[in-house]
Amino acid sequence: MRITKRTNIAVRLLMYCAAHQDRLVTKSEIAEVCNISENHLAQVINQLSQLGYLSTQRGRNGGMMLARPADQIRIGSVFRHVEGDLPLAECFADADNTCPLTDACRLRLALQDAAEVFYASLDEITLDALVCDNEHLLQILQPVACARVA
């Protein structure tokens, strides 16, 4: 199974926020540390705030933070919400399905079952479990220090 770029960005963004729960984080620092374009990041920030995962604050001292505790954010839910109704294969798409085997295909049922197991396994994982006591990850997620201008 392959996840979309948007879901990948969403999880990196949430992990960054979980690693810095004590303060508001900025889009630019996340973009730099997590190697994400600010344009893509802005779209995902908007979606995650609408879904209730992020709380955002505009303005000079603005930024974002988790809208709820990291131990209450299930990765399976994040995947489902961000991935939305993207079809797993052509035969799952109502409008664009041109496969003549759809009505008799057992692979479609197997793929559907596999997707349910995939999401169920991610439901067991919280955002907190990805970040808590993960010292290597926390080192990677440290903001890059700004160079001083003399």
Structure description:
The chain is built from seven helices and two strands. The protein has helices at residues 5-19, 27-34, 38-50, 75-83, 106-123, 127-131, 135-140, and strands at residues 54-57, 63-66. A hairpin with a 5-residue loop joins strand 1 (54-57) and strand 2. Helix 1 (5-19) crosses helix 3, helix 1 packs antiparallel against helix 4 and helix 4 crosses helix 5. The chain has a two-stranded antiparallel ribbon. It has a domain at 5-85 and 127-140: Winged helix-like DNA-binding domain superfamily/Winged helix DNA-binding domain (Arc Repressor Mutant, subunit A, Orthogonal Bundle). The radius of gyration is 18 Å and the shape is elongated. Helix content is 49%, strand content 5%. The termini are far apart. The protein is mainly alpha-helical and 150 residues long.
Assigned CATH architecture of the domain at 5-85 and 127-140: Orthogonal Bundle
Rg computed from alpha carbons, rounded to a whole number of angstroms: 18 Å
* Average pLDDT, all residues: 87
Oligomer: single chain
Widest sheet: strand ordering: 1-2
> According to CATH, what is the topology of the domain at 5-85 and 127-140?
Arc Repressor Mutant, subunit A
Into which percent range does the helicity of residues fall? 40-55%
- Strand elements, count: 2
Structural class: mainly alpha
CATH class of the domain at 5-85 and 127-140: Mainly Alpha
> What separation lies between the terminal Cα atoms?
50 Å
Biggest sheet record? 2 strands, antiparallel
Count of alpha and pi helical runs: 7
Q: Please provide the ordered H/E string of secondary-structure elements.
A: HHHEEHHHH
Instruction: Specify the overall morphology.
Output: elongated
- Let me know the CATH homologous superfamily of the domain at 5-85 and 127-140: Winged helix-like DNA-binding domain superfamily/Winged helix DNA-binding domain
Low-confidence stretches: 146-150
Share of residues in strands: 5-15%
